[in-house]
Amino acid sequence: MEHFYQLGWTLDPIGGSSSDAYKAEINGDKFFLKRNTSPFITMLSVEGIVPKLVWTKRIETGEVITAQHWKNGRTLTEEEMNSNRVASLMQKIHSSNKLLNTLEQLGMKPMLPELLLNKIETSLSPKINAHHTVRAAIKYLKNKVPQIDPDFCRVCHGDVNHKNWLLSDEDELFLVDWEGAMIADPAIDIGMILYTYVDFKDWEEWLSKYGKTLDHDFRKRMKWYTLIQCLTMIQWYEDRKRFKEMNDWIIFLNDILEKDMFI
Known about the structure:
Layout: H1 2-6, E1 10-13, E2 21-26, E3 29-35, H2 40-46, E4 53-58, E5 64-69, E6 73-75, H3 84-95, H4 97-105, H5 113-123, H6 126-129, H7 132-143, E7 154-156, E8 165-168, E9 173-175, E10 182-184, H8 187-197, H9 203-210, H10 216-239, H11 243-259
Antiparallel strand pairs: 1-2, 2-3, 3-5, 4-5, 6-8, 7-10, 8-9
Helix pairs in contact: 3-9, 5-10, 7-10, 7-11, 8-10, 10-11
């Protein structure tokens, strides 16, 4: 980012000194700068899903830099994930043909359950793969693979934890960090929200805000995708030797298997 320092910008890395994202300021104006962001960011900005995109530039190193308006605010609390606004924004994302067409034009294909299962099986380390809870989850996943029509798939975020939701000081709600965006079954997003943040007794009410009924098939699909995402996070934390968080996800994985054992 030397290019911007030379032009008089003040840059503060977000997430560490080697981050690809920066809080940037010049002449009193503040921006969020990021390196090599997907062109998908343009449509997300147009749709109001992320803070407004100001410009995109290719600098002399060949890197593409995007600048968005800097929004002062905070991430959502875990309790706030059970809200009308979260459900409404998820419904807007999943129903947007503009977002879907953009990813399709970028060459993205639907991430069907078989692909997700193969991806997670080949990514697990021998140690994780040998854990009895992980083995139970893999067995369940193999026996319960959802049958999904590719035409049913929509744009999904893939990591809807509360830290990726930004509530600005102007009371605007955004869903940020779209690096894992995919075309997939919307249950992959909804399952993680409901299993992680919403009491089961409130699932039907939350889904009514989203515009969906809680039928048996949707419950099965949510459970299946949530198990996939749990395994992904377990491996992610083991790779980084963050064993406390890894064990927390193993406990969560076991809870889903035991509490929803008849699905």
